[in-house]
Amino acid sequence: MSSHDKNASKGNSTAALHQKLNPEGIESEPMQDEQEAELLDHPSYPELQKRLTESEEKATQYWERLLRMQAETDNAARRAERDIANAHKYALEKFVLDLLPIIDSMERSLQISADDASAKAVLEGIELTLKMFYTTLEKFGVEQVSPEGQAFNPELHQAVSVLEDAKVKPNTVISVLQKGYLLNNRLIRPALVIVAKASS
Predict the structure, then answer these.
(1) Within a 10 A sphere around the Cβ of 37, how many other Cβ atoms?
(2) Most buried among 29, 48, 136, 153, using CB within 10 Å?
């Protein structure tokens, strides 16, 4: 390498060194040529420059790792909050499912015809009790699914039979054998229904 090339290389290294030592571009007194040459020719200069580069790379790696850990922590916190919210929201599901057979039995008893006054009084008491049940369930986010006359919805209804019925459109629920129920808009029991089909 010629002396001109060597001086050019040292000049480039000096500019890089100035950039590292003065990244903000603040004006400062320029180094004397002898001091610059002495610094660049010092035996420990390449090693120091290597260590500086390695330190910068490690700092970048640590920063990226910190950002990933922060993102994972935030995601875990959001998942925990969602799980806790769902636990509170659907904690009553088993309790409600245990109550539904009682409601079903009471509803069926209301379908029995009563001829004497005492039987009518019993049925009226059952009807009143059922209304209290419905009101209490609604307070806790329980909603009935009774889709008679509506279009069949496989997400909410379970068809147990299909019948021809010229009076209604095909795929319409013509009878509800057992009501379905939602808990906070989540299905906990589908409605058992009979669905109309097209005439053959």
Answers:
(1) 14
(2) 153
Whether residue 12 is found in the same domain as residue 102: no
Q: How many helices (H) and strands (E) does the chain have?
A: 5, 6
Which pLDDT belongs to residue 16? 53
- pLDDT single digits (tens) 53-80: 888 888 889 899 888 888 888 888 888 8
Give, as one character, the DSSP assignment of residue 149: T
Q: How confident is the model at residue 3 (pLDDT cuts 50, 70, 90)?
A: very low
The token pair that represents 106 in the structure block: 């009471």
Of 22, 49, 84, at which residue does a domain stop?
84
pLDDT digit string, tens, across residues 83-134: 777 777 777 888 888 889 989 988 888 877 666 777 788 888 888 888 988 9
10, 58: one domain: yes
Phi, psi dihedrals of residue 30, rounded to the nearest 5°: -65, 145
SS3 148: coil
- Domain of 132 in residue numbering reads as 93-197
Report the amino acid identity of residue 130: L
Q: Are 173 and 194 in contact (CB under 8 A)?
A: yes
Same domain? For 58 and 23 the reply is yes
